[in-house]
Amino acid sequence: MELNENARVDTSQVEDRRGSGGGGGMGIPIPIGGGRGGIVGIIIAVVVALVGGGFGLNAATNGGGSEQGDNTSLEQKCSAQDALEQLDCRNTLYVNSIQAYWRTALPQVFGDQYKPSKTVFFSQNVSTGCGAADSGVGPFYCPADDLVYIDLTFYRLLADQLGAEGEFAQPYVLAHEYGHHVQDLLGTEAQMRRQQQRDPQNANTLSVKLELQADCYAGAWAKNATGTSDEKGQKIFKTITDQDIQQAIDTAEKIGDDAIQQRSGRPVNPDEFTHGTSEQRKQWFTKGFSTGDPKACDTFGGTQ
Ligand SMILES: [Zn+2]
Fold first, then answer.
1. What is the largest CA-CA distance in the chain?
2. CA of 92 to the centre of ligand 1 (A)
3. Nearest by Cα to 46 from 27, 32, 57
């Protein structure tokens, strides 16, 4: 993968809350299972965020929006010569590419208008429209405030604990979270939540379908990413190679529910799957990538 050094990093698409010492985020810590809670937490947090409720008691009063981060330093940093050597600037550019894709694809494919969603960079803990969260939960999308949240140190954990080292794991993770934003815009997520309430026994199965669709949407973005541009029409990526795509697929495999259960030393229990197996995650990302068409991401199989 090669990013275009002439592309402008649009920092208005992120909200930098890292310098605030966690200000406002000192809420109820999210209990996460097991000693290796971080990885397990990815699953729990995202599910909890998506099914709503339970993610903190003050969701109604604690919503985002009131604490705008100060992006001045990020803006300066990301307009400097060496911007693309900086993790946060690169990730901002990934966000720019993902949203540029959906701005075109959503009207084209689904006839819906795309509404941008910011990514919040936080460190350690953060308060969200879905309640308080800490880094242990991994990146997530909160449908209540339409924001993507990530502590960028998550990538180190992904590399060190899961062996998902490739750089392209990063845009894959972000594209997956924006996949949830798209599901939110399309009403898929709300529909799934209603189905879960009607059919609690299948709550996890439904969650898996939602997650696999987000993986597939990430694949569709990856296929079209080299066509995305900044607001001045400069291409964001110069190249994306087969090796990059393989890194995304490897990451998808490494965060499969069965792989994570095995890693944490627990027996593999399909009843507890919420995101899909390694094989399924790989398959659906690949389906999105090979077709380049979000319409092909019909994980619900017409049941919605
Ligand atoms: Zn997800």
1. 54
2. 19
3. 32
Give the distance (Å) from ligand 1 centre to CA of residue 26.
Answer: 24
How far is ligand 1, taken at its centre, from the CA of residue 150, in Å?
Answer: 13
Q: Enumerate residues 6+ apart whose C-beta is below 8 A from 277.
A: 256, 257, 258, 259
How far away, in angstroms, is 253 Cα from ligand 1 center? Answer: 14
Residue in the structure block whose two tokens are 């308080």: 132
Distance 275 CA to ligand 1 centre (A): 7
The string of pLDDT tens digits covering residues 239-287 is 999 999 999 999 999 999 999 899 889 999 999 999 999 999 999 999 9
CB 146 within 8 A of CB 63: no
Q: For residue 277, how far is its CA from the centre of ligand 1 (angstroms)?
A: 13
The pTM assigned to this predicted structure is 0.85
**In angstroms, what is the span from residue 36 Cα to ligand 1's centroid?**
19
Q: Are 87 and 167 in contact (CB under 8 A)?
A: no
Q: Is 14 left (phi over 0), alpha (psi -120 to 50) or beta?
A: beta
Spatial distance between the Cα atoms of 175 and 60, rounded to a whole number of angstroms: 27
* Alpha-carbon distances, residue 285 vs 122, 125, 136, 212 (angstroms): 27, 30, 25, 8
Q: For residue 27, how far is the Cα from the chain centroid?
A: 22
